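Loading example: each entry is read as two labelled lines plus one structure line.
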Amino acid sequence: MLFLNKDNFQRDVFLGLLAWLILIIFYFIFPDPGIHDIIQKVFILGLFAMSLNILIGYLGLIAFGHAAFFASGAYTLGLFLQSDFVLNLASFSIPVAMLLAVLVSSILAALIGVICIRLKDIYFSFLTLAFQMLIYSIILALVNITGGDQGLMGGFPKPPFLGIDLGKPFDFYAFTIFISIITIVLLRQIIESPFGYGLRMIRDNSERPAALGFSNQKHKLIAFIIAGSIAGLAGSLQALLDVGAYPEWAFWSKSAEPLFMILLGGMHSFLGPLMGALIFEILNDFVTANTRYYGLVLGLVILCFVLGLKKGLLDWILIKFNRK
Amino acid sequence: MLKLDKLSKSFGGILATDNVSLELKPNSINAVIGPNGAGKTTLFNLITGKISLDKGQIFIGNKNITNLTESEITHLGVARAFQITNIFPTLSVKDSIKVALLAKQHGLNNMWNRFKTHSINNEAESIAKLSGLTKSYDTISSELSHGDQKLLDIALALALKPKVLLLDEPTAGMGPEERWKMIDRIQKLWKKTKMTVLFIEHDMDIVFDTAQNIYVLQQGSIIAEGTPKEIKNNKKVIEAYLGGGKK
């Protein structure tokens, strides 16, 4: 198939839709709800991890407060669906709520990013962490709005739109994966565009671009905003899945999860973090079913990857495959 | 083409650049020599706006570029290659040159095209050819030989189509044979592109063979300038730099 050899946007859209169709067929071949649940979560968390990898893998900035945007997306969606607007908008409320979640997360990312990107290395990491904990504290403090440490209480309605009823398991499964895949295809376009190579350039050598007449700061800020928006989208999907939002989603340990996924799957291959999310979720499911010592097992697995493969699984596979 | 008017810069009481004035003719090739710590690289940093001036003015043609930012000065036609190779380790030669070309054209904000199939490919190829990097065009930069990394550093500067090219020790860390190859390449470049070139070099044979005009720096100030012949016979220079074998 000559068409598939061309690395362009059309091919990615085709492959994305193909993957979606295969996963839809998969749904009917394996009717176990447990498996469906894992696949949905892999895409939601994979989206979260891939958004973080824009910063880590392509820009070389270790952001440690990425969950702030995940949480802002989740809370924005939840709070909007709890408000009276839902009644007015009726069937459009979920799409509007998701757009708002992305918008609010991107504005938050712009505000936090404009300050953080001035710093490098560990200072950047710690400042992003500090902002995240600020968001966490705000969520806990505004008990009247956010429900404080209980999380968003009382749930929210999920009115059907365009014939999609997210209350039904199949609709939710197909919708979540569809949105995730579209986002991944768009993200790939950005990563493979001149803009994406600008990110790699800054990662490789942050001094030289100025001597090429290029300003790093604007580029870094745009990347930070894109990463924050996609994390917000992932958060909004998670909120739809759980019909709620919880302050733990803004806690620092939530920022460590996508980091683990990136380490497990690989930061140098585009789909590495998604594969990391798959490993993470399977481990989560398998290990928690058999032992209480989940953290210990996860730690050992990460050690094996870091010391054994010295890279994420997909990175390792791709290098192995290319050498043959 | 490039005119420096009484530049001064001090770092914590030490005068690194002391009242330096010079004027490069269009399409000339010129060298800066001087012992270690004479302020040669500092002078380049001042010209390119990497560090700010204390006093003095800089002109490109008739345009005053004093106190402009590094990026602005680059867009006005001054490009440099660095003493310690300053490249993009994980990008291939091809991708590095393309990135440099796009940086100059403000093309790196584009999110809707694919970088790999971007129409800039032909231009990148001709710059690689000009720099002698055709053979290693698809090699990852960190896997290049030292000499080719130096060439890539120069190629990145060439991608900016500069009027003035500053080369900071283009032959640093090379053996004698490699040095001459490099300087040959630079001479060819200079003849083809009609740029104004200013280079820093330690090898006196190369300097006397290549430069039309030589500036001798010592402790931040120019103690002599002239053609190779004039410099060879200048007493001050012999005393300060060429003679005695002092370093």
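Chain A touches chain B at residues 7-9, 189-190, 192-198, 200-201, 203-205, 207-215, 219 (CB under 8 Å).
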